[in-house]
Amino acid sequence: LNKNNPAWIRPLDKDIKEVFDPARNKTFRHGDAIRWILKDDKGKLAGRIAAFVNKKYKNKGDDGPVGGIGFFDCINDQAAADMLFDVAKHWLMQKGMEAMDGPVNFGESDRWWGLVVKGTELSPMYCMNFNAAYYQQLFENYGFKNYFNQICFGMKASVRLQQKFYERHAECARDPHFSSAYMKKNQLDKFAKDFTIVYNKAWAG
């Protein structure tokens, strides 16, 4: 679908495969995932979709048990999209789900999460969804409604940062309580603990 789009960057096979590998994705311990591929009557590929159940997935409002769908790609054809959504919906219903959320990932929400509705002409960031503008209509025509807006930012590594970053760095560099160091392989436990402390303090609350 995207091979002729100059903005498309093909995902790495390993990043997709690990989502559906029970040995590498710990979400399988409390959930399940399935995938389908859609072909037209001539055998030509027309779309794909995955569905997920995750007992630890937080329910949204009063929707009851919520299942997820993701890794959706489809030609610009509502009937084709409806067929993909239908097969995912019925599988989720068989698993006891009462609502369907998507596009989401089977696992952490820092990758493969959300439908791109603005910036569809831009290249995707690493492990983020990429879709044509017409996908929004396919979802909404089926009955999906927006739950929240997610904003993603990119930065060109070759461009100098804003001055405030350098000023903040200088401030931290003067404080003896702050330091930075490369991780050492023979001290992975120490660095993992340090990282956990910093991460939790930064995101707590």
Please specify the SSE layout and strand pairing.
Blueprint: H1 13-17, E1 31-39, E2 45-54, E3 66-74, H2 78-94, E4 99-101, H3 135-142, H4 163-173, H5 188-203
Parallel strand pairs: 3-4
Antiparallel strand pairs: 1-2, 2-3
Helix pairs in contact: 2-3
Describe it.
By secondary structure, the chain is α+β, with helices and mostly antiparallel strands. It has helices spanning 13-17, 78-94, 135-142, 163-173, 188-203, and strands at residues 31-39, 45-54, 66-74, 99-101. Strands 1-2-3-4 form a four-stranded mixed beta sheet, covered by helices on one side. α2 crosses α3 (135-142).
Oligomer: single chain
**Beta-strand proportion:** 15-25%
Number of strands: 4
Q: How confident overall, as mean pLDDT?
A: 93
H/E topology pattern:
HEEEHEHHH
How is the largest sheet built, in terms of strand order?
A: 1-2-3-4
By secondary-structure content and strand pairing, the structural class works out as: alpha+beta
Give the biggest sheet. Answer: 4 strands, mixed
Number of helical stretches of at least 4 residues: 5
Low-confidence stretches: none
Please give the share of residues in helix.
25-40%
Radius of gyration: 21 Å
Overall 3D form: globular
Query: What is the straight-line distance between the termini?
Result: 42 Å
Summarize the structure.
The chain is of the alpha+beta class and 205 residues long.
List keywords for this structure.
205 residues, alpha+beta, 4-stranded mixed β-sheet
